[in-house]
Write a structure and sequence with these properties.
It contains seven helices and no strands. By secondary structure, the protein is an all-alpha fold. It has one domain. Helix 2 crosses helix 3. The chain is globular, with a radius of gyration of 22 Å.
């Protein structure tokens, strides 16, 4: 076998022009997309029903509120909005790799909101412990104005991660 043939065989496994063998999946991509979206929507509903005003999610809802309030403070009220938005993106976009991106967008947005809430008054801890610790650090180093600018930028980064998927879909439709 010539050197060229060996190189071709090495680069083109199974004679498929470099593409790996397609994965066999029980579920279609359409079904997976809908499952992810439904899970996001149901999670958003459960979080809303966990809010102290409703208190209809049982013990799990109470524990969720305790943990979310501890971590993010009053910013946890925005979690259903982000989950709903992530569910809509799962339904609308055809882009790959959106699972991690949606998780990252939710977390980054929550950190931005928690930081803004915490920086307003560090003694109250409206941003939970994550917001409090970040706000204490940033306000101590830069002052309140710059800390709020940084938290605003963090929130914008999370928003742009969401918008990346929305804009790419709008551009494909045109």
């Amino acid at each position: 076998m010539s050197k060229r043939d060996k190189e071709y065989k090495k680069n083109n496994k199974n004679g498929r022009n470099g593409k790996d063998k397609p994965k066999d999946s029980i579920l279609s991509n359409w079904t997976k997309k809908w499952i992810k979206a439904i899970l996001m929507f149901v999670s958003a509903i459960i979080v809303i029903l966990s809010f102290p005003y409703f208190d209809k999610a049982g013990n799990a809802g109470k524990y969720f509120i305790i943990v979310a309030n501890f971590l993010f403070g009053k910013a946890f009220y925005t979690i259903p909005l982000f989950l709903f938005l992530a569910g809509m993106i799962f339904l609308k976009t055809k882009k790959k790799g959106k699972n991690l991106a949606m998780f990252l967008a939710v977390i980054v947005s929550l950190i931005g909101i928690a930081g803004i809430l915490a920086a307003r008054d560090l003694a109250i801890k409206n941003g939970g412990w994550i917001g409090f610790l970040l706000a204490k650090l940033l306000v101590g180093f830069f002052g309140l104005l710059v800390a709020n600018i940084i938290f605003g930028a963090i929130l914008l980064i999370g928003t742009f991660i969401f918008l990346q998927f929305i804009w790419s879909e709008m551009m494909q439709e045109k």
